[in-house]
Amino acid sequence: MNHDVSTRSSAPSPAPTHPTWQRLGLSLPALIVSCQAVPDGPFDTPPFIRAFALAALQSGAQGLRLEGVENVRTVRADCDCPIIGIVKRDLADSPVRITPFVHDVQALAEAGATVIAVDATDRVRPQPVAELLAAIHAAGCLAMADISTLEEARAAQALGFDVIGTTMSGYTGGPVPEGPDLVLVQQVAALGVATLAEGRLNSPQAAADAVRCGAQAVVVGSAISRPEYITSWYRQAVDAAAAAGSSAQPGAPVLALDIGGTKTLVARVENGVITHELQFPTQRGEHPDQWLAQALAVTQGWPGGWTHVAAAVTGVVGDDGLWTAFNPQTLDFPPYPLVQRLREVFGVPALALNDAQAAAWGEARCGAGQGDDLMFVTVSTGIGAGLVLDSRLRRGPAGIAGHLGQWRDDAGHRLEDIASGSALGRQAVQAGWPGGAPELVERARHGEPAAQALLQAGVDALAQALARVQLLLDVPTLVLGGGLGLAPGYAPLLEAALAQRLGPHAPQVRPAALGAHAGILGAALCPLN
Ligand SMILES: CC(=O)N[C@H](C=O)[C@@H](O)[C@H](O)[C@H](O)COP(=O)(O)O
After folding, report:
1. How many domains is the chain partitioned into structurally?
2. CA-closest residue to ligand 1 atom 1
3. Does the keyword section mention Isomerase (predicted)?
């Protein structure tokens, strides 16, 4: 049976640009399935490896990664697809396991491997990586470097490897992380090399995230071809669900974080009441790992413990827990697996959501909108919103529900760039009022026509957007928060602008009741699942 898999992909994909992908005949992004059995487990024989391989190729995989010369030879007899071959050895004098010897390279090439992968980590090894690379190329194969750090990726690129995989990240010391190393995927892709994400892509979502982070191909192994691992993940998940069900009772203590563009607030919340809290500047330019490390450090001595950790953050958090910046001017960082890292750093179950969404939930549960469906709108540095509809917080699978500030008017201006506190502050300074937005509000209150006109223009832009939301959703209550939203005189202006557009159908405008704590309380009161 022949499998010309290079023509099998039905997914629309960009033309392969990197020479490696062209030589392999892969359409991108490519799914490569690693068919490796648990050593000495019930599937650890060439016929089972062959069956996994053929099943994968019949279902959308374009290539395979196989361990062992016999397995490569057996599968090659049945398919023409690219095969990444490796040999694993447990050596007494080196931690390197993947294809450590030149004779392994030669045997894999002879058995039919297209690509040969070697461990290219910076560790003690029996034969230099450069010798293995030369042997791979001499055998007419492509060379893949399995690396664990950006430095190793750079070294492999300099040596002339054809493709670099993040395979070894998490396996060179210390506990193995729960999820894939998407930061490394992103860093390697930025080098401009053919980038293959590999390691702990244990869900379709994780594989898709790796592609979003720049990988042109993904290797998925255990989640497809190690039923023993898959079974144990299910076992752990159902056990954890049972444990969370008993611990995360309403009122149980929660550690809540609110990570904003300028400051991070951390608090322990029990029964909806803040028992401890602390604030520190968000170090812009640092990696999100640092922000979590600082939150962990400052909460270390707090008594009472917590059942889980909940984060409200600026930006977007999707269903998969991946955190991305929506407006990099507010806070910029690479896509970050926030929920997973919270779990790892704090050692307890975790959830995360957008800060305005969290504030909406906080106001709905214990603030200005108790019992009502509502729209929460914060007019502050930016403009954000959150929706509680039919008593449920609407986040959306991508996490973008409520990102009102990102709306653009007909001229292409983003709402928060023309109507937020910082936008009006900039306009005030341009008008000659160095006190920015607060001075603008003050001058408008005292009847200065120029200040009134500026403020009114911002209010009108927001009211225009809110009127459209209202026509779509018919929300009875609009809870208004944020520095500018709560400034004296702002709410009546907005109310009037809404009434002008919606008449009796305008929502009732109420000031937010929880102030700076809305996000942290909302996150803390969010159900864990
Ligand atoms: C570190 C190491 O030895 N990785 C090996 C490399 O071939 C395999 O055990 C992995 O299964 C493979 O990398 C795919 O990863 P995952 O099974 O997590 O999808």
Report:
1. 3
2. 168
3. yes
